[in-house]
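Per your request, structure below.
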């Protein structure tokens, strides 16, 4: 964890996911960084989002993708609707502290979509979108990344300001972080796991060092039954 930057990295240092078959995916344009807040940016939204129809939707909540789900299946490249996507890891304390604030966003912006995925389980997506540290928040329009949230102060209010400055959509004023938001769906409690790749690397290195040591001339003469040749 990089405490000064408020991020955990690299994303691949958490528990590894089972490898899957390689999939060809379209190359997307680079993500545009979020620009500083200003009067002009507040008047003119940078992203013209098509707000979804909320008729019949009773509960607005965050959707978390599992290891078998692909982000691109949830993004419509032929649409102009907007989706805020969070790359996180359950072992990162900064992701855990962000969780309750991100869980409350779907109620503040019911016309937008909100997704979250474990970056350690979706390494190909993390590489494609430049996610070298978590948490990482990207705003998509259709399947195209449009802006990245770059503030280290990750609260409900700063997230509201980011969405408003980018889309011009105002948040509902009566939404606040509740007790339910601390419980889920995004976990706010750190989970521990075994880094199998690191464990395998350590065991391999230890085995190699032990083998090389036993093969040296200075150790072989200590082993009973070994014949040694001495050169004069």
């Amino acid at each position: 964890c990089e405490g000064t930057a408020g991020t955990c990295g690299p994303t691949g240092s958490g528990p590894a996911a089972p490898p899957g078959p390689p999939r060809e995916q379209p190359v997307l344009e680079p993500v545009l960084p979020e620009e500083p807040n200003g009067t002009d940016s507040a008047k003119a939204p940078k992203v013209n989002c098509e707000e979804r129809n909320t008729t019949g939707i009773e509960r607005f909540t965050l959707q978390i993708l599992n290891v078998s789900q692909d982000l691109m299946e949830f993004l419509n490249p032929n649409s102009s609707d907007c989706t805020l996507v969070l790359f996180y890891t359950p072992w990162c304390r900064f992701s855990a502290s962000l969780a309750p604030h991100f869980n409350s966003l779907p109620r503040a912006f019911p016309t937008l979509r909100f997704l979250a995925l474990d970056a350690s389980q979706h390494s190909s997506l993390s590489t494609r979108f430049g996610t070298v540290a978590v948490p990482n928040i990207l705003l998509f329009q259709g399947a195209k990344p449009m802006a990245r949230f770059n503030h280290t102060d990750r609260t409900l209010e700063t997230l509201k300001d980011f969405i408003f400055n980018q889309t011009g959509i105002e948040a509902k004023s009566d939404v606040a972080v509740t007790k339910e938001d601390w419980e889920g769906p995004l976990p706010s409690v750190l989970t521990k796991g075994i880094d199998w790749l690191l464990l395998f690397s350590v065991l391999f290195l230890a085995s190699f060092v032990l083998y090389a040591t036993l093969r040296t001339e200075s150790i072989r003469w200590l082993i009973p039954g070994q014949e040694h040749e001495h050169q004069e």
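The helical segments are 39-43, 93-108, 123-128, 156-167, 179-183, 196-214, 217-220.

Regards,
D.
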